[in-house]
Design goal:
The protein is mainly alpha-helical and 177 residues long. 36% of the residues lie in helices and 8% in strands. The chain is elongated and about 100 Å long.
Length: 177
């Protein structure tokens, strides 16, 4: 409960700013030396951290590549606020993923359909960081799929073919007497 509330207080909309970006304040919001980061940068860093952790889990614990990934992950972790890292690490400590991409309107962690309001928030250009209401995982927006470069094959319209009319069966003629 505390971790969810803590990361919610991280986001604040600047009053004087006219652009639709959210500002992210680090641990000391009154400290002028700490830079503000946009939400898009935060989502990119969280996505990168999630990918590095997943790649490291697939490797053997003592491998050289595993140590390299750990160092890369530490450099990414330094860029993230502690409130978000706390929530992320809480999920990881339970043996679950900390962040996952949305796929086909479902959460990438629990694969349950997301509410329509949350989906519209994720699709906006100035998307904020969202948490799944079912599994508490950070939901990362879908990577936009590039349109197919090859044009669709042209389909010829079917030409209507007239079928010959069936002739009506004639009633047998009555014999004239």
């Amino acid at each position: 409960m505390n971790s969810t509330l803590a990361w919610l207080e991280v986001f604040r909309r600047p009053a004087a700013e006219t652009s639709p970006t959210y500002a992210l304040f680090f641990d000391h919001p009154t400290d002028p030396d700490q830079p503000m980061k946009t939400t898009a940068t935060l989502i990119e860093d969280l996505s990168q951290l999630s990918e590095l952790d997943a790649a490291r889990r697939r490797l053997e614990p003592g491998s050289a590549r595993g140590k390299e990934l750990k160092l890369e992950a530490e450099s990414v972790r330094e860029r993230l606020p502690t409130a978000i890292l706390h929530h992320y690490d809480l999920r990881i400590s339970k043996g679950k993923r900390g962040a996952a991409r949305m796929r086909n309107n479902t959460c990438g962690g629990c694969h349950l359909s997301l509410p329509s309001g949350q989906l519209s928030d994720l699709r906006r250009e100035d998307a904020s960081l969202q948490v799944c209401g079912y599994c508490s995982i950070f939901i990362l927006p879908e990577i936009p799929q590039p349109e197919a470069a090859a044009p669709a094959p042209e389909v010829e319209e079917p030409v209507a073919v007239k079928k010959p009319r069936k002739s009506k069966a004639k009633a047998p003629a009555a014999e004239e007497a």
